[in-house]
Write a structure and sequence with these properties.
101 residues; alpha+beta; 1 helix; 6 strands; globular
Length: 101
């Protein structure tokens, strides 16, 4: 059976989605229980509804996923903590260029 490029891309997205769910579940078990959204230059914690300056967070882990092999488009999962507020959570950036370190 011959698969099309679209089938390959869809399979990759499904596999990455399963992997991303596993990453988020593991982070939750490690105490990263809050979710953050980017609003302007601030991060909104969806649980406590507080806005935080993005520079006040430390990035503990970054998990990168590509939409398409060989491209820079995809999404990243950031494990964040705010050292002064004892706050840990997850921020997901979708559709951005992924820079390699």
């Amino acid at each position: 059976m011959v698969t099309s490029f679209a089938d390959h891309v869809l399979d990759t997205i499904i596999d990455d989605s399963r992997s991303a769910i596993s990453v988020i579940n593991e982070l939750y078990e490690l105490g990263y229980t809050n979710n953050f959204r980017l609003i302007g230059n601030e991060l909104l914690c969806t649980e406590n509804r507080k806005h935080y300056q993005h520079r006040s967070f430390c990035v503990d882990e970054i998990y990168r996923f590509r939409f398409n092999p060989g491209s820079n488009n995809g999404f990243s999962i950031f494990a964040l903590h705010h050292p002064e507020e004892n706050l840990k959570g997850v921020f997901i950036a979708i559709g951005i260029a992924i820079a390699e370190e």
